[in-house]
């Protein structure tokens, strides 16, 4: 048995998956999240994101709503159906930011809704809020 005291701030980095068909948006957000101390990965389609969830086990997923083939709403529903997806935090990431868009994402099972381009301070606040929970 170890007597080692582990400081509160030494927990492992939060795992974040970014699902967006726009490679530049996804890759930029991954880099930004990494500057906040997260371990982040990008997936460029809903199907690719669904494949990554069981192995990567993210705690937070940023999900573009306007993707081709499988849009963000359908991807969110499929994520929520899998055991690994029930408890994670889903954040809609979209160019659509009207009140009805935010309401629709809440109804679809998203925990938050960010309008592109995502506000850096809001992203940092979200990560801090989740760390405090």
How would you sum up this structure, described in words?
- With 133 residues, this protein is an alpha/beta fold.
- The chain has one domain: 3-Layer(aba) Sandwich (Rossmann fold).
- 42% of the residues lie in helices and 19% in strands.
- The protein has helices at residues 23-35, 46-56, 72-81, 99-107, 120-132, and strands at residues 15-19, 39-43, 60-64, 89-94, 112-115.
- A five-stranded parallel beta sheet has the order 2-1-3-4-5, with helices on both faces.
- α2 (46-56) runs parallel beside α3.
- The radius of gyration is 15 Å and the shape is globular.
- The two termini are 29 Å apart.
- Residues 1-11 have low confidence and may be disordered.
- Keywords: Phosphoprotein, Transcription, Transcription regulation.
CATH fold group = Rossmann fold
Number of discrete helical segments: 5
Rg from Cα = 15 Å
Instruction: List SSEs in N-to-C order.
Output: EHEHEHEHEH
Which bin fits the share of residues in helices?
Answer: 40-55%
What's the average pLDDT? 88
How would you describe the oligomerization state of the chains in this entry?
Answer: single chain
- Strand order of the main beta sheet, please? 2-1-3-4-5
Q: What is the rounded distance between the termini?
A: 29 Å
CATH architecture: 3-Layer(aba) Sandwich
| Name of the level-1 CATH class | Alpha Beta
Question: Could you give a short account of the major beta sheet?
Answer: 5 strands, parallel
């Amino acid at each position: 048995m170890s007597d080692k005291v582990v400081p509160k701030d030494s927990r492992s980095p939060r795992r974040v998956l970014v699902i967006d068909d726009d490679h530049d948006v996804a890759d930029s957000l991954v880099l930004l999240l990494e500057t906040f101390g997260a371990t982040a990965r990008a997936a460029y389609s809903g199907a690719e994101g669904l494949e990554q969830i069981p192995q990567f086990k993210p705690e937070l997923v940023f999900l573009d709503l306007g993707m081709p083939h499988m849009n963000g709403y359908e991807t969110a529903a499929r994520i929520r159906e899998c055991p690994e997806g029930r408890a994670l935090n889903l954040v809609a990431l979209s160019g659509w930011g009207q009140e009805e868009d935010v309401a629709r994402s809440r109804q679809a099972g998203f925990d938050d809704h960010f309008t592109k381009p995502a506000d850096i301070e809001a992203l940092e606040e979200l990560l801090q809020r989740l760390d405090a929970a």
